[in-house]
Design goal:
There is one protein chain. The chain has helices at residues 2-11, 52-62, 86-97, 112-122, 127-135, 138-146, 153-163, 173-191, 194-207, 212-216, 220-231; strands spanning 15-18, 23-26, 36-42, 72-79, 104-110. It has a five-stranded mixed beta sheet, sandwiched between helices. Mean pLDDT is 81; it is low at 233-238. By secondary structure, the protein is α/β, with parallel strands linked by helices. The protein starts with a helix and ends in a 7-residue tail after the last helix. Helix 4 (112-122) crosses helix 7 (153-163), helix 8 (173-191) packs antiparallel against helix 9 and helix 9 (194-207) packs across helix 11 (220-231). The protein has two domains: 2-163, no CATH class; 173-231, no CATH class.
Amino acid sequence: MIDIVSGLFEANGYEKIDLEQGFLFTYPNDSEKKDFWVVIEEDELSSVVSRQSDILNDCKIKHESNDLEKNASLLIIWNTTGELELLEMKKQIMPIEENPYYFKKHILYYSPTELEEFKDKLDGNNINDFFSSNIANEKTFRDYKENPLQGSWRELFYRVVIKLPFINININTSSNIESLQHIINNKLESNNDNRLIHLNNQVFEVYGDLTLEQIKSKETSEIIDSLFDVTEGTIDGN
């Protein structure tokens, strides 16, 4: 899986630097873009947080840049073996992604079955072309949204798209957001929780006209503040 992710970075203009643990991806020194990604692959997550300092120090040794420390993200590719329930995975993922130190952390998980299907679909195709064609493919999205937990290559595909902000999304974003809103509404209405339904409606009201890249570029605090402004006094669903 790390080879696929590495290929995506390199196909999108990043240079790869070998580290003691994984790789560092950065734009060339003469580029105005300052973006740094450390990519590692793990079979289990328990030691990742404690190793952050060592990983960052290795980055500084291998690549000197005053911008590295404040612009570094850590992508952790996690092989779940396919045996863990989603709730258990979330329990392991959240404390790491919410840890505020050293890096912005992102966990890209996959099962062996998902990866094998993904490789079969990729099968020698140009990786950027593969992502562009499948992002724009309505059948791919429809099959995914009808069963988002079936453990196929589509789930892994969309996880990668969500985690890597440089992937170009040439689709009719508004129509797909409307489709996504319909799916979420059905799930929330089945829970009969008016507060969650109201909050969900506000999310799409505020962000429904933005592209995925624009949403990703916003700080978490900015998103929270904007939602607080539109939900203040009405979050009880009355």
